[in-house]
Amino acid sequence: METNNIVEGVIVVLLILLIFFLFSNNRKNQKNMEEEIKKSEIDPEKHDNEGV
Predict the structure, then answer these.
(1) Cα–Cα distance for residue pair 2/40, rounded to 1 Å
(2) pLDDT tens, 2-52?
(3) pTM, whole model, 2 decimals?
(4) Mind telling me which residue stretches traverse the membrane in this protein (predicted)?
(5) DSSP track, 1-52
């Protein structure tokens, strides 16, 4: 009976750590994606000459 409580406690702690890891990783990826979108929306510099 005591072993079941220990195993359940370890599983709960691991689940909490997994959820924390997934949220932090998601935030980091979201920030990177937002920066890439901002960089792609910036208009490139225009050249003065009109050569093709």
Answers:
(1) 57
(2) 789 999 999 999 999 999 999 999 999 999 888 888 888 776 666 667 666
(3) 0.59
(4) 6-23
(5) -HHHHHHHHHHHHHHHHHHHHHHHHHHHHHHHHHHHHHHHHSPPPPPSS---
